Amino acid sequence: MKRNVIPELLDSDSGTPAEIAASFSDLRRINQWFGGIATAESLVRYVASQSEARSFSLLEVAAGSGDVPRAAGERLQRHGIQIEVSLLDRAVSHLENRSNGARAIGGDALALPFADATFDLVSCCLFAHHLSPSDLLRFGNEALRVCRVAVLINDLIRHPLHLALVYAGWPLYSSRLTQHDAPASVRAAYTAKEMHDMLSQTSTRGIVMRRHYLFRMGVVVWK
Fold it and tell me: How far apart are CA 198 and CA 179, in angstroms?
């Protein structure tokens, strides 16, 4: 299945405030039911097991309302792991709907407005597939610059069966934005090999990739 980039409506806020809110609600359900939160939790737990640290500062890039790191943080607490979350999004209006009291910053993911080694971890969920290969490489190096330990990438895997499942899930989507953006996301997603090959060109000292529930990939890019 060849990668096909179709502009997503939520990226350009092409909808009414009610439609955008409904789209974020759909994303919360998708991440809760289909592996987004579980993948985020797994990535942090893996880093904790390798570093023996139990507390991390985490920057969530393209965070939207911040539901994924919030929910993952609640699960991690049960395992004695704490994360202090900061949210970054290009659209300040998205951050205004955040679900917790996390610090929120408007900014560009390709030119992160932070000094070197500001956070332990830099994370993103359902963001990497929005980037071209050159921009993904640029983001990877920016995120490695800003982190102290690792970059965590939580994203979709492009596959024909995945696309079929997304179309089958149309009755679950409450927003026309999601009806357009969900299949567009799968078409634009990278395979695990493509992701590994591109991230290998960053300044990383090593990459760990794992497949997760329902065509999710979890990537640890070590500083």
Answer: 29
Which residue is it, tokens 């591109």? Answer: 198
Q: What is the pLDDT of residues 54-75, one digit of tens each?
A: 999 999 999 988 899 999 999 9
Please state, in angstroms and rounded to a whole number, the distance separating the CA atoms of residues 94 and 91.
6
Around Cβ 32, how many Cβ atoms within 10 Å?
14
The CATH code that applies to domain 17-157+192-222 is 3.40.50.150
The residue written with tokens 């990537």 in the block is 219
Answer whether 156's CB lies under 8 Å from 3's CB.
no
Looking at the whole model, is its pTM more than 0.85?
A: yes
Domain residue extents for the chain: 17-157+192-222
105 or 194, greater pLDDT? 194
Tell me the C-alpha distance between 206 and 223, whole Å: 8
Give yes or no for a contact between 47 and 150, defined as CB atoms under 8 angstroms apart.
yes
